[in-house]
Structures are given as structure tokens and as C-alpha cells.
Design brief:
Layout (H helix, E strand, L loop, with lengths): L2 E5 L4 E6 L2 H4 L10 H9 L11 H35 L5 H24 L3
Antiparallel strand pairs: 1-2
Helix pairs in contact: 3-4
Length: 120
Amino acid sequence: MARITIQTNRHLVGLLRQDACLRYPCRSPPRRGKNSDAAIETADVVIENDQPARIATAIRIGQQTNRIVWQNIGLAFAVKATVLILGAGGLATMWEAVFADVGMALLAILNAVRIQRMRF
């Protein structure tokens, strides 16, 4: 059984195993049985066309999504810590804390929507 590993600098990104499904490819749509549905449900990535180059695109999308998630987490912690410190010092009111919380949630959503407009 052949195994193909896909790695970036230090991280294992994917592992492809050649089994009966890949050993006997066909151009017609696969028969959807109980086993193929289970394989699709447990897979992290499913490529349903004959373009394995899409794996690299999926990796780039995942990396960009990871960057945006960490941007959102860092910005949310920074804003909440600032409002917490100001509130503890008596300089921020409850309304400012609510505005910072809701405003940060909206900013995180708008930042995450950027991924849909990117070209990969």
C-alpha cells in the first residue's frame, strides 16, 4: 500500500493512502453506497473531481483562515483587556464595555468575511 505525505515546513498537512478506491479509478461518477458515505463523513477534505492540484489550494485557504482566526482572537483579547483595565480604574462604564464587546464581535465577523473575497 503506497503512502504519500504532504508536508509544509515542519507540519504534516495530509496523508494520502492508496487503497481500493484509488487503485481502480473510473471517470464515471462513483456509486454512492454505505461505505463511500462513511468515508466522506469521516474525511477532512473530499476532492470530488479529477484535479489533485486542488489540495494545494485547500492548504492555502486553511493557512489564510488560520491567520484570520488568530487576528480575531488577538484583537478581541486586546480590546477586552483594555476595557477591563479602564473599568477597574473607574474610567469605563458598563455601556462602553457592552459597546466594546458587541463592536468587537462585529469587527471579527467583518474580518472573517474577507476570506470569501480572496482569490486562491
